């Protein structure tokens, strides 16, 4: 109703201003547009366009609202939540892996230290064993050497004894011969003298 | 009506002395039927319908088609959509508080409509739907009514505490209450006029400079001026959408937490 009245008013005004109501056969059906197609006043204040704008605005807003609330927002929200979840999970996994790596390093260091002490122990043991074996061998060798030495000494002593005997014999024989050559025959005295002499030499 | 007649007179005078220099800076705001010449009824398909439909298509393109990949590592359009989502979501959360988040789809709808309508209006020869007070008034009234109803539903009579500044001296409170009441009811007016006024003024000024471009001697200056103002308008298009949205959040906060 109001629209019609506004139209009528507009038409009346146009008429009053002496403008043509028609141009190229078309009726100017608006109070807000003059015959030349220009705006009359501010188009923003043209009441007869309000219902149209409001209707289409409401339709537009409803469509946008439904598209957003039914499709777009749940989807974007899900994407963002999923991404957040992935990031959180990844960070947690990374943290876990870091811990594991630390543990592994600790275990490695520990086993390294263990191996080192074990190696030390084994080498120490081996060394001690070798040392004891060596000692035993040395003792054995010493004993053998001592035995051999004693034997040798005995032999040497025997040889010396026999050599001394031989010397005494030779000396006695020689002395006897010499005494015989000089015409005397006193074997016992020669022998005693040689023994005396050899003893003295011995000393 | 008097205003109309006056403007008409001015228009007529314009036509009379026009010559080479004819300004019709407001003709870009005329609503006209898309098909035929008939009268504009509430259901007529007009340029308003056309540009609002394009707004909807752009929004669907960005937020639905753009995010079709649902990728963990977003494509360009998806990251723009996520950026817009995050921008408004954070705004609602920061300004209105955690319990304001359930009104986020509503506020996001307003923001997207305004920002896309503003930017589409910057296309030369386009019709700017948000430059019309009828459109912004509906948006602002919807916010105003929603917030007021929500305030009373959620807080009951405690919502009136919004107007009773309990931190002020007792003698001042009634005066402050009147001021608060007036400012509360002025909200939808300023809310809507700010948006429509900014856009309309910018577009009209561009058109005026475009009119000057017909005169050869000042054409370069006028083209430069159009370029500069266009740049400014790009800023205004976003800032006004932002301002409208953040004010909506502020009003919503008042409804959710009416105490000062």
Automatic annotation (TrEMBL), chain A:
<comment type="subunit">
    <text>F-type ATPases have 2 components, F(1) - the catalytic core - and F(0) - the membrane proton channel. F(1) has five subunits: alpha(3), beta(3), gamma(1), delta(1), epsilon(1). F(0) has three main subunits: a(1), b(2) and c(10-14). The alpha and beta chains form an alternating ring which encloses part of the gamma chain. F(1) is attached to F(0) by a central stalk formed by the gamma and epsilon chains, while a peripheral stalk is formed by the delta and b chains.</text>
</comment>
<keyword id="KW-0175">Coiled coil</keyword>
<comment type="function">
    <text>Component of the F(0) channel, it forms part of the peripheral stalk, linking F(1) to F(0). The b'-subunit is a diverged and duplicated form of b found in plants and photosynthetic bacteria.</text>
</comment>
<dbReference type="GO" id="GO:0012505">
    <property type="term" value="C:endomembrane system"/>
</dbReference>
<keyword id="KW-1133">Transmembrane helix</keyword>
<dbReference type="GO" id="GO:0046961">
    <property type="term" value="F:proton-transporting ATPase activity, rotational mechanism"/>
</dbReference>
<keyword id="KW-1003">Cell membrane</keyword>
<dbReference type="GO" id="GO:0045259">
    <property type="term" value="C:proton-transporting ATP synthase complex"/>
</dbReference>
<dbReference type="GO" id="GO:0005886">
    <property type="term" value="C:plasma membrane"/>
</dbReference>
<dbReference type="InterPro" id="IPR002146">
    <property type="entry name" value="ATP_synth_b/b'su_bac/chlpt"/>
</dbReference>
<keyword id="KW-0375">Hydrogen ion transport</keyword>
<dbReference type="InterPro" id="IPR050059">
    <property type="entry name" value="ATP_synthase_B_chain"/>
</dbReference>
<dbReference type="GO" id="GO:0046933">
    <property type="term" value="F:proton-transporting ATP synthase activity, rotational mechanism"/>
</dbReference>
<keyword id="KW-0813">Transport</keyword>
<keyword id="KW-0472">Membrane</keyword>
<keyword id="KW-0406">Ion transport</keyword>
<keyword id="KW-0812">Transmembrane</keyword>
<feature type="coiled-coil region">
    <location>
        <begin position="87"/>
        <end position="125"/>
    </location>
</feature>
<keyword id="KW-0138">CF(0)</keyword>
<keyword id="KW-0066">ATP synthesis</keyword>
<feature type="transmembrane region" description="Helical">
    <location>
        <begin position="54"/>
        <end position="73"/>
    </location>
</feature>
<comment type="function">
    <text>F(1)F(0) ATP synthase produces ATP from ADP in the presence of a proton or sodium gradient. F-type ATPases consist of two structural domains, F(1) containing the extramembraneous catalytic core and F(0) containing the membrane proton channel, linked together by a central stalk and a peripheral stalk. During catalysis, ATP synthesis in the catalytic domain of F(1) is coupled via a rotary mechanism of the central stalk subunits to proton translocation.</text>
</comment>
Automatic annotation (TrEMBL), chain B:
<keyword id="KW-0066">ATP synthesis</keyword>
<dbReference type="GO" id="GO:0005886">
    <property type="term" value="C:plasma membrane"/>
</dbReference>
<feature type="transmembrane region" description="Helical">
    <location>
        <begin position="161"/>
        <end position="186"/>
    </location>
</feature>
<dbReference type="InterPro" id="IPR045083">
    <property type="entry name" value="ATP_synth_F0_asu_bact/mt"/>
</dbReference>
<feature type="transmembrane region" description="Helical">
    <location>
        <begin position="42"/>
        <end position="66"/>
    </location>
</feature>
<keyword id="KW-0812">Transmembrane</keyword>
<dbReference type="Pfam" id="PF00119">
    <property type="entry name" value="ATP-synt_A"/>
</dbReference>
<protein>
    <recommendedName>
        <fullName>ATP synthase subunit a</fullName>
    </recommendedName>
</protein>
<dbReference type="InterPro" id="IPR000568">
    <property type="entry name" value="ATP_synth_F0_asu"/>
</dbReference>
<feature type="transmembrane region" description="Helical">
    <location>
        <begin position="234"/>
        <end position="253"/>
    </location>
</feature>
<dbReference type="GO" id="GO:0045259">
    <property type="term" value="C:proton-transporting ATP synthase complex"/>
</dbReference>
<dbReference type="InterPro" id="IPR035908">
    <property type="entry name" value="F0_ATP_A_sf"/>
</dbReference>
<dbReference type="GO" id="GO:0046933">
    <property type="term" value="F:proton-transporting ATP synthase activity, rotational mechanism"/>
</dbReference>
<comment type="function">
    <text>Key component of the proton channel; it plays a direct role in the translocation of protons across the membrane.</text>
</comment>
<keyword id="KW-0138">CF(0)</keyword>
<keyword id="KW-1133">Transmembrane helix</keyword>
<feature type="transmembrane region" description="Helical">
    <location>
        <begin position="133"/>
        <end position="154"/>
    </location>
</feature>
<feature type="transmembrane region" description="Helical">
    <location>
        <begin position="103"/>
        <end position="127"/>
    </location>
</feature>
<dbReference type="InterPro" id="IPR023011">
    <property type="entry name" value="ATP_synth_F0_asu_AS"/>
</dbReference>
<keyword id="KW-0472">Membrane</keyword>
<keyword id="KW-0375">Hydrogen ion transport</keyword>
<keyword id="KW-0813">Transport</keyword>
């Amino acid at each position: 109703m109001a629209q019609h009245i506004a139209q009528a008013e507009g038409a009346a005004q146009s008429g009053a201003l002496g403008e043509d109501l028609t141009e190229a056969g078309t009726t100017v059906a608006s109070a807000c547009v003059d015959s030349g197609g220009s705006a009359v006043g501010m188009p923003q204040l043209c009441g007869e366009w309000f219902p149209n704008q409001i209707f289409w605005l409401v339709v537009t807003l409803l469509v946008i609202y439904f598209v957003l609330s039914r499709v777009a927002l749940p989807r974007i929200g899900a994407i963002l939540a999923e991404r957040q979840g992935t990031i959180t999970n990844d960070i947690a996994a990374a943290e876990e892996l870091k811990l594991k790596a630390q543990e592994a390093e600790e275990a490695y260091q520990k086993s390294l230290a263990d191996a080192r002490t074990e190696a030390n122990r084994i080498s120490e043991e081996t060394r001690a064993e070798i040392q004891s074996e060596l000692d035993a061998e040395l003792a054995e060798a010493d004993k053998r050497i001592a035995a051999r030495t004693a034997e040798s000494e005995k032999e040497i002593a025997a040889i010396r004894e026999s050599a001394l005997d031989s010397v005494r014999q030779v000396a006695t024989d020689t002395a006897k011969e010499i005494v015989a050559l000089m015409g005397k025959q006193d074997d016992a005295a020669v022998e005693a003298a040689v023994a005396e002499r050899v003893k003295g030499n011995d000393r | 009506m008097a205003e109309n007649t006056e403007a008409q007179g001015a228009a007529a005078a314009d036509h009379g002395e026009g010559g080479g220099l004819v300004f019709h800076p407001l003709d870009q705001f005329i609503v006209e039927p898309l098909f035929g010449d008939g009268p504009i009824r509430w259901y007529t398909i007009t340029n308003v319908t056309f540009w609002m439909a394009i707004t909807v298509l752009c929004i669907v393109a960005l937020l639905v088609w753009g995010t079709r990949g649902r990728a963990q590592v977003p494509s360009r359009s998806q990251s723009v959509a996520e950026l817009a989502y995050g921008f408004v979501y954070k705004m609602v959360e920061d300004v209105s508080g955690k319990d304001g988040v359930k009104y986020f789809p509503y506020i996001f709808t307003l923001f997207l409509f305004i920002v896309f309508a503003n930017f589409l209006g910057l296309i030369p020869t386009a019709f700017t739907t948000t430059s019309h007070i009828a459109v912004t008034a509906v948006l602002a009234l919807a916010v105003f009514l929603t917030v007021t109803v929500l305030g009373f539903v959620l807080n009951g009579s405690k919502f009136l505490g919004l107007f009773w500044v309990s931190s002020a001296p007792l003698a001042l409170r009634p005066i402050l209450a009147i001021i608060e009441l007036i400012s509360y009811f002025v909200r939808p007016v300023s809310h809507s006029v700010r948006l429509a006024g900014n856009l309309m003024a910018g577009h009209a000024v561009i058109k005026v400079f475009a009119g000057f471009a017909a005169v050869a001697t000042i054409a370069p200056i006028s083209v430069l001026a159009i370029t500069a103002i266009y740049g400014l308008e790009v800023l205004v298009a976003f800032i006004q959408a932002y301002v409208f949205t953040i004010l909506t959040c502020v009003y919503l906060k008042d409804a959710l937490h009416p105490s000062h």
